[in-house]
Structure formats: C-alpha cells, structure tokens
Amino acid sequence: MSRRKLVMVALCALAIVVGGWALTHSHPSAPAPSTAGGVGQSTCPIATLPREVADTVKRIHAGGPFPFPHSDGEVFANHEGHLPKQRRGYYHEYTVVTPRARDRSMRRIVTGGTPLAHPRQYFYTGNHYDSFCLVTDAGSQP
Q1: Are 94 and 109 in contact (CB under 8 A)?
Q2: Is 128 annotated as catalytic?
C-alpha cells in the first residue's frame, strides 16, 4: 500500500473514532436542568425527559416486570458521590430502555428510599451515572 493511501486510511480511522466518541458523549435526550433545593442539585420534570422514563417509573410503581430483571432493582452504591450521601441500600437502579439499543445502554432511574414500589426520590441519568437530575414529579405518576 502506498504511503498516501496509508495516510488516508489512518485519517479515516481517526475520524471514525472521534465521531464515535462525540456521539457517545453528547446527550441530546438529557434534560436542560434547573437548580433547586440542595446545593448544585438539578431538577427535571418527567415531561422534559425521554418518554421511556415514564414507562420505567410505571414499572417501579407496579413492582415490575422489568426488562433486565437481573439488574433492575439492584442496590446502587453511589460510589462517585453524585447523589446525596445515604446509607448503603438506600438507592436502587432501574434501566430506562433506549430504543434500538442491544444492551442496557446508558440511561437509568435511581430511586432513593422505601418502599421500593413508591420511593421518596427519583433521579435520572442519561449518561451512565456521570450526572443526575432529581425528577420532581415521578412519585405522582400513575
């Protein structure tokens, strides 16, 4: 292969890698957060989130069934500390289905408190726990 062709292949590969990174790190479905209550805690009404969030909240209220039963409802440890500090077992995570995804993807609802079917708090992340917003009206969803 000529040097010119090799350089073109390398540049194309670099463009694909950079484009893929940009797609996975941009979050068009993430809400435009507002700040409320706690220090730096952003909030988001459920209507501003992807429609699948409401489906997940309804499943939580019904106690299931969940699309990923081996993962949904598991304790969320909050290792990164992005959520308010609580005792272990306070938070639980649930998958927010991403259309056309072949796996759990990056969207989650993390609940806080008990009972599990009607917790006190609901947090949404569209970027796999890098940031959260407090869903202000998830507890009132039918």
Answers
A1: yes
A2: yes
